[in-house]
Amino acid sequence: MTSTNGPETRIEADPQLPTIRIVREFDAPRERVFRAWIDPELVARWLGPKDLDMKIDTWEARTGGHYRYSAHRDGQVVASFYGSFHEVRPTTRLVQTFTFEGVPDGVSLDTATFEPAGEDRTRVTVLSVVDSLEARDAILASGMEHGVVEGYLQLDALLAAG
Q1: CB burial class (10 A; 0-12, 13-18, 19+) of residue 42?
Q2: pLDDT tens figures, 1-54
Q3: Fewer CB in 10 Å around end: N or C, the chain?
Q4: Which residues pair with 87 in a beta bridge?
Q5: φ/ψ of residue 100, rounded to 5
Q6: Residues 137, 141, 143, 149, CA torsion sign
Q7: Are residues 124 and 114 in contact, defined by beta-carbon separation less than 8 angstroms?
Q8: Residues 53-105 pLDDT 10s
């Protein structure tokens, strides 16, 4: 499965592997894009669909750190997430676990790489690995695509604002 939504977002699922690959380019230098990924104040402004507010409970973006946040709509919690930062390599790589509290056995291992993609542009590739094709398909069916695309559009606006 390959899906292209928005101007540049690619979401790919190899039919033989329990993985999801997301590729997106941003009009900003790698340092700024990476900072938007690890600074909790910035993450809360762009992560997820535009109709949700993200509340960061804990965010220790360092190798060995952890995080927990929740998504709110009309003042109500609609989803909560948590995980650990396995590796934070400034401006180039972020490896973390990701768990939706509603499915605590469904942990994924996500590796985000940040690469220059031309003059003041950055290509971010996120590879998520889960334990089964069924888990991968459930993630794809969950509305994840909508949240990723809208979140990245919000990130575009945040980066453009400086």
Answers
A1: middle
A2: 445 554 589 999 999 999 999 999 999 999 999 999 999 999 999 999 999 999
A3: C
A4: 95
A5: -85, 125
A6: positive
A7: yes
A8: 999 999 999 999 999 999 999 999 999 999 999 999 999 999 999 999 988 78
